[in-house]
Design brief:
Elements (H helix, E strand, L loop, with lengths): L1 E3 L2 E3 L1 H30 L9 H17 L5 H4 L2 H28 L5 H30 L6 E6 L3 H10 L7 E7 L14 E2 L2 H4 L3 H9 L3 E4 L17 H9 L3 E4 H9 L9 H6 L7 H21 L1 H14 L5 E7 L5 E7 L24 H8 L7 H7 L3 E3 L6 H10 L12 E3 L1 H5 L6 H17 L2 H16 L6
Parallel strand pairs: 3-4, 3-6, 4-5, 6-7, 10-11
Antiparallel strand pairs: 1-2, 8-9
Helix pairs in contact: 1-2, 1-5, 2-4, 2-19, 4-5, 8-9, 12-15, 13-14
C-alpha cells in the first residue's frame, strides 16, 4: 500500500485510477482527431487543447472516486461496476458540461465542440471501462501481485486476518502460513497451512523459512508475548525477528497490520501503549488553521450550491406537518462540550413526548412522509452547515451523538470518549464506511472507524471523505 499523509491507499486502486484516466484521455484525444479527419477533412488544422482534455480527465477521475468506483469492494464486483457505471458516466458528462460552460464564460471558443466530444467520450468510455476492469481484476488477483505474509499465531487474531483473505477481492496479501506460538495448540477455525513450533525453537529456522518462501512481511498475531517453559528462551523470538528484519522482511504487530488493511482500529485488542507509541494524533496551530479555512470555504460553497434544495425542503417540511422547520437537538462536541445541532425536522413534533431519547428504528412510525425522503437522501443534514460556520462542528469528523447516549456508551465501550478529541462533522470516515448505527454494537463498530480518523486525520483524508460523501448520498445504505 502507498501511505499518503498517514492514510493507506491500495496500489491496485492507484493503478486502476491511472489506467482508466489514461484510457479516458486517449478516447477524448482520439475523438478530437477523428472529428477533424471526418468532419473538417483537414488534420493539419486540427486544434487540440491538451489543457482542456487534462482538466476534463481530472474531473472524470474525481467523479469516479466520489461514487466509490475505486473502492476495492466495487471494482472487484463486476455487477456493481455495471450498475454504478450506468449512473456514474452521465454524472461525468454533466460535470464536464458545467466545466465547459464556465470555460466559455471566460472566452474559450471551442466549448460547443467539446460538449459533443464529452458526450461521445462517456458513451465510448463506459464499455471500455468494463473491459479494462475485467482484465484488471484477473491481473490483480494473480498471487504474484500480493504481499506474502507469515502470521505468528493461530488464535482469534489470526482468524481475523484469515477473514480479510476470504473477502471477494482476496485482500492485498496472501498468508503463506500460520505458525503456532506460545500455548496455542489447535486453531479455533480452519487456518491453513499451520506450521509447528520448530520454526521458533531452532535458531535461524525462521529466517531460513522467510528466505525460502520469499516472505514479505511477518505479522505478530498472538495475544501472548511469552512462550511456555521448556522451549528455547522466553518471550518473543526477538533475535530471529531481528534477523528477518535485517534481511528486508517487514515485521508488524497485529494492531498496526489491522489498521492498515482494514482502515479501522480493532477495539477488542487495543491497548493504551500502542496508541502512545504508534504514529498519529498530530495536531498544531497550523493544521487547525488550515482545517478551519477548509471548513469555512467548503461550507460557504455548499450553502450556496444547495439553496435550490434547502429552500423547497424548508417549505415542504412546513406545509406537510405541524411544527418548526428546523429541529434543534443537543449533541456532544469537541472535548465533551454540548451544543445544539440543526437539522430539518423529519419526525412528528411529539416524537419524544415522554422525554426519553430513542434510537431511530427501521420503518419508524414517528417519521413524516417528507421526513422519510429527506432522511434517505441525507437532505435533513444540510442545515448543519450553519453549525460548521459557527464553529461547533467541522465539515469532516465523527458524527455527534446525544448526551444521553454518550454517557451510556462511554461507560460500556472503552475509548469511546476519545472520539471527542476532534470536532464532530457532517460527514466522516465512519459514515462512508459503515451504514447507519442504531445500537450499542453499531456504535462500537463506528468507533473503530472514528478512532482511525482521529489518529490519522489530515486535509488529504478530509478531501477523500468529502468526495466519497457523494456515494453515500446516491447509494444510501442503512438510512433510517
Amino acid at each position: 500500500m502507498l501511505r499518503l499523509f498517514r492514510h493507506h491507499i491500495p496500489f491496485p486502486a492507484i493503478a486502476l485510477a491511472i489506467v482508466e484516466s489514461l484510457f479516458y484521455f486517449s478516447i477524448m484525444y482520439a475523438l478530437v482527431v477523428l472529428r477533424a479527419v471526418f468532419w473538417d477533412h483537414d488534420i493539419a488544422d486540427v486544434r487540440i487543447d491538451l489543457w482542456i482534455l487534462l482538466t476534463l480527465t481530472a474531473v472524470s477521475f474525481l467523479v469516479m472516486a466520489s461514487v466509490g468506483m475505486y473502492n476495492r469492494d466495487v471494482f472487484f464486483h463486476m455487477g456493481t461496476v455495471v450498475s454504478r457505471g450506468a449512473v456514474t458516466y452521465p454524472i461525468i458528462f454533466v460535470a464536464n458540461s458545467v466545466l465547459l460552460f464556465l470555460f466559455s464564460l471566460v472566452g474559450f471558443d471551442q466549448a460547443s465542440l467539446y460538449y459533443v466530444i464529452c458526450l461521445a467520450g462517456v458513451i465510448v468510455a463506459y464499455p471500455v471501462t468494463l473491459l479494462v476492469r475485467l482484465t484488471f481484476v484477473e491481473v490483480v488477483n494473480l498471487e504474484v501481485f500480493r504481499r506474502r505474509v507469515l502470521v505468528l499465531g493461530i488464535g482469534d487474531l489470526a482468524i481475523k486476518i484469515s477473514g480479510l483473505t476470504q473477502t471477494e477481492d482476496k485482500g492485498h496479501f496472501v498468508v503463506v502460513a500460520y505458525v503456532v506460538f506460545g500455548s496455542e495448540t489447535t486453531p479455533d477455525e480452519g487456518l491453513e497451512p499451520v506450521l509447528g513450533n520448530d520454526l521458533l525453537d531452532r535458531r535461524h529456522a525462521l529466517a531460513e523459512y522467510v528466505v525460502e518462501q520469499q516472505i514479505d512481511e511477518i505479522v505478530i498475531a498472538s495475544r501472548e508475548r511469552r512462550r511456555p517453559e521448556g522451549r528455547l528462551g522466553k518471550g518473543m523470538p526477538v533475535w530471529d525477528l531481528l534477523e528477518c528484519k535485517l534481511l528486508g522482511t517487514q515485521v508488524t504487530d497485529f494492531d498496526t497490520f489491522w489498521e492498515r488493511e482494514a482502515a479501522e482500529i480493532d477495539l477488542d485488542v487495543l491497548q493504551p501503549g500502542w496508541l502512545i507509541f504508534s504514529d498519529g494524533f498530530r495536531i498544531d496551530w497550523g493544521r487547525q488553521m488550515i482545517k478551519r479555512t477548509f471548513d469555512v470555504a467548503v461550507s460557504l460553497a455548499f450553502l450556496l450550491f444547495t439553496l435550490p434544495i434547502t429552500l423547497p425542503t424548508a417549505l415542504l417540511v412546513k406545509l406537510t406537518s405541524a411544527g418548526p422547520v428546523f429541529y434543534r437537538q443537543e449533541r456532544v462536541g469537541l472535548d465533551g462540550q454540548v451544543f445544539p445541532v440543526l437539522k430539518f425536522r423529519s419526525m412528528r413534533e411529539d416524537a419524544e413526548k415522554d422525554g426519553v431519547p430513542q434510537w431511530a428504528k427501521q420503518d419508524d412510525d414517528r417519521i413524516t412522509l417528507v421526513g422519510d425522503f429527506i432522511r434517505k437522501t441525507r437532505i435533513d443534514e444540510l442545515p448543519q452547515v450553519l453549525n460548521v460556520l459557527m464553529g461547533d462542528m467541522s465539515f469532516i469528523g465523527p458524527r455527534p451523538e446525544r448526551p444521553y447516549f454518550v454517557e451510556s456508551l462511554c461507560e460500556r465501550i472503552p475509548y469511546y470518549n476519545e472520539r471527542h478529541r476532534v470536532k464532530p462533522g457532517i460527514s466522516g470516515w465512519a459514515q462512508i464506511n459503515y451504514p447507519y448505527g442504531a445500537s450499542e454494537e453499531d456504535a462500537k463498530r463506528k468507533l473503530a472507524y472514528d478512532l482511525y480518523y482521529v489518529k490519522n486525520r489530515s486535509l488529504f483524508l478530509d478531501f477523500l471523505i468529502l468526495i466519497q460523501t457523494v456515494r453515500v448520498v446516491l447509494w444510501p445504505e442503512g438510512v433510517r
